[in-house]
Write a structure and sequence with these properties.
A hairpin with a 2-residue loop joins strand 9 and strand 10. The chain has a 5-stranded antiparallel β-sheet with strand order 2-1-5-4-3. The protein has a 5-stranded mixed β-sheet with strand order 7-9-10-12-11, covered by helices on one side. It has a two-stranded antiparallel ribbon with strand order 6-8. It is an alpha+beta fold and 325 residues long. The protein has 3 domains: 104 residues, Beta-Lactamase, CATH 3.30.450; 71 residues, Helix Hairpins; 144 residues, 2-Layer Sandwich (Heat Shock Protein 90). It is elongated. The chain contains 8 helices and 12 strands. The model has no long low-confidence stretch (mean pLDDT 82).
Amino acid sequence: MISAEELKALIDQTYKVEEEYVSLRQSYDHLQSTIEQIIEFLPNAIWIVEEDGSIFLQNSQAKLLENLFETLHWDEQDYEVTFGERSYLIKSALHNEKQLFSATDITEQKRKENLATMGQMAAHLSHEIRNPIGSIALLASTLMKRVKEENKPIVSEIQKSLYRIERIIKATLMFSKGVSTQKSALKWSVIRNELKNAIGYYSYAKEIHFQFPEVEFELQGDLDLLGMLFTNFIFNAIDAIELDDEHDEGSVEIVYTREGEFHRFAIYDSGIPIVNEKLLFEAFKSTKEKGNGLGLVLAKNIASAHGGNVELCRGERKGFIITLG
């Protein structure tokens, strides 16, 4: 028989084992909670999977990508996959009989890499094209002086087309190199005259009425860059009006206001509505058939270089708001 002392020792040992079990369980729960917090803190989706394919642990990012999880390859360690409209880098590893998966969203990285590649290619082509275009422009200018009067409109259209190509080359090179400003004090009348001259080089068939601010004011800026900024919007407006099949004429208006330290320009037009707003400031993606997708991107960069911004009008009238510092 067990003596009272032995029974007491056995009970005490039982209590001690139970206390150790409770302590061990608390440590395990704390460790699991810590692991869950760590993987929850990670920006990528994490799955820890049992041998039978059941999920042992996952974070909230992984829960949002449950359909992506169904497509993962157990026999590949590192690969890229496109799912929906996003790109992901998939990594996997086997540890303690559990399969670990991670999915990192690399969409923005891929977009930047693609833009850099496209920008380099476009810049190279622009350099190659610039010299022959310059020769053609010189020849067209000489031809204008010698051609018969009735043929001058044809030469004029050639010059307008060359002007458009030169703008594309300039925009492409600027995009690849970045916007660099040389600011000085500018009067609005100087910029306005630049815009009127640029419109004269742009081809359009409809009767379009242009209304620019007549008030004189001064701002600090780069004349060439600001000329490109405003003409990008004006030419986009002209193209939108030309595509309007319901009307034979249209209007482009720039409204100016001063808001504290900022110059605010609202550019309105009567052309067709914007089809896809998501593409507006995406490089090499255009909302119009003959666009190169750089105009609005550069406009935004130029405005930013002048301490301002560009945004879409959200009022009743169709247009854009430009702010300059």
